[in-house]
């Protein structure tokens, strides 16, 4: 419950202007000297201004053209929308336009070769790795929910000795059909040691893995994936309760990436259910006693927009010469309702508009 309160208070910013890819060199790490750093700045915001701001010890984010929102309350299935994002420049840009950057910047070089800590620069490879990691984690969860462990068991290997002689108790392999070191044509291969024999850090887990089944090992893998990211991208802090009546000590995200993995951790803990909105395509949580299992829209605005869309389609079909009966069959309604739509006797207040994300996702 306390964790949920902290998520309610997590806010994030998204630039209202266009984002862009900027080719810029990495200044450190394994990618030093490589290009394709993702600089999440509005197109009207000059990169040179950002560099000067960073060198002056200021934040490089523009002072205007940004919007603040609460990702995890407004979009309860955001982690699944993230996992469904196409790991291409175009797909990532679409996600960033709706929800903002991940908040995990890199150090880049200025034209003179000096390192600059520009915290809005996010590499294509970072986005891709996180999308693929989230997809893989969700796949493991789906396998855990299926009856039997045969399919899941193919991904759990061990005990065995690694190439350097290290005794591995159990390991997880996302692509066991591939040879050692081989990567799939699309996506990324995840190979994680879950416990090493005799390692004090995994001693307790070693006993569980030896006595447990593939499900135990899969849960150990999920725990490792979630913890690795939440340790880096979340923190603990004192926060007000929503009504301001008291203070509480909570875990809270540092950035959007931390929020996504924290949301996954909470999902694993509470076994939440999700549904994909039939109008905007986004995922949303099916909250007990608040949503029915047959709920098909993530919000009232999406439901109303879908209703108006069906009305407009009915009018087009009628203008094309279709009968009320044929239209009703095609749209899953009845002839009298279709007649009312066409003649304007039934409908919603047309001043309502669909949510912003729905309009963006459905626009050509």
Give a quick rundown of the structure.
The protein has 364 residues and is of the alpha+beta class. Helix content is 41%, strand content 15%.
Care to describe what's here?
With 364 residues, the chain is of the alpha+beta class. It is 41% helix and 15% strand. It contains 14 helices and 14 strands. It has helices spanning 2-8, 47-55, 71-74, 78-83, 89-99, 124-145, 150-153, 203-211, 214-233, 256-270, 300-319, 324-331, 335-343, 356-362, and strands spanning 12-15, 37-39, 66-69, 108-109, 115-116, 121-123, 156-157, 160-161, 167-173, 191-196, 234-240, 247-253, 274-276, 283-285. The strands form six sheets. Strands 7, 8, 9 and 10 form a four-stranded antiparallel β-sheet that branches. A two-stranded antiparallel ribbon has the order 1-3. A hairpin with a 6-residue loop joins β11 and β12 (247-253). α6 packs antiparallel against α9 (214-233). The longest helix is centred in the middle third of the chain and has 22 residues, at 124-145. The protein starts with a helix and ends with a helix. Residues 42-60 and 347-364 have low confidence and may be disordered.
